Each structure stands twice: as C-alpha cells, then as structure tokens.
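Morning!

This is the sequence you dropped in the shared folder:
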Amino acid sequence: MQKIAFQGQLGAYSHLACKHVNPDAQAVPYDSFVQAISAVECGDAKRAMIPLENSSAGRVEEIYRQIPKTHLNIVAEHFQPVSHCLMALPDAVPSWVMSHPQALAQCHDKIIALGLEPRAEFDTAGAAKLLAKDGDLTGSVVASELAADLYGLNIIERQFEDITGNTTRFIVLMKDSAVREYDASKTYVTSILFTLRNIPAALYKALGGFATNGLNLIKIESYLNSNTLNSSQFHIDVAQHIDTQAMQNAIEELQFYASQYRWLGTYESHEFRR
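The structure's back. Tokens below.
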C-alpha cells in the first residue's frame, strides 16, 4: 500500500485531505512539515500532503520557506473545506481554548465572544489528543469532527469558524519531474519559483511576457531569501500548461530577468477553481 505523509496527528485536516485525494493510500502522520517532506525525499512515503494557504488566515509561512529547500515537485492541488468544531471533555466548563494558530485565527471572533483564552498548539488534532490525555475540564479545543470522534471529546459547537466557506488549499509533493501530456480539454496550473536580477523594473519586465501572451497569473507570492535581506524570491501560479507555446514564450522572457528559475510542477487545476 502506498503511503502519503502529512504533518499532524490522525484527525488533522491534512489527514482529511489525504483521505479525499488518496483514499486507498495509508496516511502517515509526522510531527513537522520538514519530516513529512523528508519522508518522501528518502522514500519512506510516496507523496506528501502539504497545506499552502487558507482563504481566511492566509498563507502557511513555513511552507514557503521549505519549498526552495526541497527537490520535490508539485503534482496536484486539493481544496479542502474546513469546518471547525469547538470541543471539550464531558462536563467541562472551558475557560481557554487551544489549537493550531491558523485555526485560532479562523475562529478569532467566536473565541473572543465566548471569553476563551487562546493557546497555540502545533496541530489541531494534536491539541484534541493532548486535552483528552490531560483530562483538563477547563480546556477546550478547535479541531475537526473526526478528531472529536477519535479522541472521545464532546462537540460544543459545529461550524465554529468566523467565515463560512473557509477552505484550505493543499499541494501534493512527489519525487516526480515528469510533465503530464497536455490535454486541451483540461485546465492546468503551472507553479514557478524565481529570483530576480538586481536591475530596475525587473519584476515588471519579468512578468510582462505573461500579459503579452494572454496568460493569467492566479497567484504571486514574494518572500525574503533566507540568506539575505536584499533579495526576494517569487512564487507564481499560472493558469496554463507549461508545454503550450504561450507559456514557453513567457518563461523565456522571465528567465532573461531572473537570476534563478525553477519549475515546481504542472498539474490539473482542482474543480474548486472551475
């Protein structure tokens, strides 16, 4: 049976994403994103399910620091609806709530309204597991309904998130650099990582080829290179297959203004985008 690695405990939203994308694979939990990615790099797992951004709380900062360090490729994306539950032990009277910082941010208004003290934990399901183990009747957790079932907690409130339609975008990483053959009946996303040359208007000029070739940039993220404060890396997603002539033209222009360029992957766009 193939294994798919994820960060967190069983019952985490990454676990739910694994079940949706690869229901026949064995989902294997790891304590950190680095460990989950390393499991694929060393062959202990076939792929890794990694959260990239959330519609409410924004991007997962650590992942953007890890992507340049790994040689894995993005082979798929998955949009996972996130419906948080507030849960506690039977007969509990909560005065505080713990969860992953992203989950706490997504439920901020309701947490304040209930007068609960927020406490950060590394993982939503891990927080549920910890509360069940400690038996603290003053505590509560924000996690998935699956986590409540797995760890024997009572659900106080479902759909605890502040904004309906809360969704997390996941990427699937593999040791696979093969480009899927272009099919005109399908829609694609191509992900690219690059660093610019230190010249005036470099970003404007580097991205100009996408506009002139009629290509839609659906995402652009910038973050500082870990080795310097003077150079930014850019992560872009383009709504097109890399093998089309328009993409080849745009990439040729991008590479002229880039000091570093790396193709991260081309994959079918998720139905959530359509």
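Headline: The first strand starts at residue 3 and ends at 7.

More detail when I'm at my desk.
O.
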